[in-house]
Amino acid sequence: MFRKIAAFNESFLKAYLEKLGRSAGRFVTSAGQLAILLGSAARFAVTPPLKMRNIFKQMEFVGVQSLFVVILTGSFTGMVLALQSFTALKRFGAESMVGPTVALSMARELGPVLSGLMVTGRAGSAMATELGTMRVTEQIDALATMAVNPVKYLIVPRILAGICMFPVLTIIADFVGFIGGYLVGVKLLGINSGVYIGRTTEFVQVDDILNGLTKSVFFGLITTLVACYYGFNTTGGAEGVGKSATSSVVLASVMILTSDYIMSSMMA
Amino acid sequence: MIKIIDLKKSFNSKKVLDGTNLEVEKGKITVIIGRSGEGKSVLIKHIIGLLRPDSGRILLDDIEITALKESELNEVRKRFGMLFQGAALFDSMTVGENVGFPLMEHTDLHDADIMKTVVEKLRRVGLVGVEDMMPSELSGGMKKRVGLARAIVMDPEIVLFDEPTTGLDPIMSDSVADLVLDTQRALNTTYILITHDIPFTYKIADKIAMLHEGRIIAEGTVGEMKQNSNPILRQFLEGRAEGPIKVY
Question: Residue A191 to residues A83, A105, A188: CA-CA distances in angstroms?
Fold first, then answer.
């Protein structure tokens, strides 16, 4: 009886360890492939000629077309921050600190992180889908047969667009968040306008904004690199394209949140 | 001339090419036939360097394609054109932009000159006034024609065709066969096609080679292949379920 239980435990443990080993192997392989793709894209990004038309097209897609969602998210986040912080700060008679609370939260954390997550959901998934479809319909192979390097033609413009446009979107998210907070704090909750702006300019430093922008550059890189990686390595037809889009959004979001903590600790 | 020498390729543990040998003559139409999943597409992708073999060599004249670096391979690829099974037209571009794409990328021609060449190549494949259409607006046959126009727009020495008649009705298949013959004669280009469409093969081939279990098991002209008594070849050419090839 005991032998049977021991044998069962042994086989169960073996199967579990094998599964764990396979997952670890896949993780290391994916990390390695991401690093290789990044290295390759970096090399082609500094190798002329660069197709500026492709880069601008991607900047328009990542940046301009994400404006609406970023403005909406930024403004409502600023508004709700003002509302919640007012409730908390009023207990200590520190309503004047609503402005700095909103502005610092937006500039250091919420501006880059929320705009990063929103753009990942909108543009990252679309990128993975587009490249995945190109892969399964042999359009990427067709590029290669025409002596056009697919990494240089498809991936470099997307990564450059992400790196350039995420900081721009973050500035916009910061600004509309501040305006949203101001409207709720001053017009709705009755904080003095001069106090609100004065306290904000007193507490918010340029470094706070720059820290947020530095993060957003990395988030732009993460979102586009992960989307391109999954799109580029899509297999299995329509189902594979769907999986690539989902996986790219999940991984990029997780990477944004974890790297945000790491960067925040380093910047602190 | 293209020489494929003892080419081997496996995916995981599955042997796809197992010592493939073939010679393709310059200026002729060579058709590689074989069942689906026998590695025909894998073979053609090796010829243009999209896949690297586990062992073996491919020679284009005196250049060993299989030993080239990516940058060197790109120079050789300019001598090729390729028509994919689904045409692989870029969804985001118009027909004109698709056909003119290689010229945009590799020449200094002005837009007007590129468009002139595009119109001429489209006319050669029997299409007029479609430059501004999107690929999604085209029928399967029209897509193949546009794909062929793109494949020949740089006047390549060699054009590869991956199952050019798959998904087409018999009349359209015959029309593609005429197109292949017309363009090949007009340009005197080396054409390599893979297909399992036997009437199409008989109509166009200067040479037929049959790929089976990773090797070329029979090759020759249409007449020679019709006379060949190899039971595997006979079963395939006659389209019989009974025979040495097992149907799973």
Answer: 11, 19, 8
Q: What's residue A1's pLDDT? A: 67
| Nearest residue in chain A measured CA to CA from B151 | A146
Whether the per-residue pLDDT at B183 is higher than 90: the answer is no
Give the Cα separation of B124 and B153 in Å (integer).
10
Query: Is residue B140 included in any domain, yes or no?
Result: yes
Residues of chain A in contact with residue B77, where contact means CB-CB under 8 angstroms, are 144-147
Q: Does the beta-carbon distance from B88 to A144 stay under 8 Å? A: no
Integer Cα distance of A140 and A154 in angstroms: 9
Contact B74 A138 (CB under 8 A): no
Query: Which residue is associated with the tokens 């020498």?
Result: B5
Q: Structure pTM?
A: 0.88
pLDDT of residue A51: 84
In the A/B pair of chains, how many CB contacts fall below 8 A? 45
Residue B60 covered by a domain = no
Domain of residue B132, residue span: 88-155
Q: Does the beta-carbon distance from B84 to A148 stay under 8 Å?
A: no
Band of residue A10 on the pLDDT scale cut at 50, 70, 90: confident
Tell me how many domains chain B contains: 1
B201, part of any domain: no
ipTM of the complex: 0.89
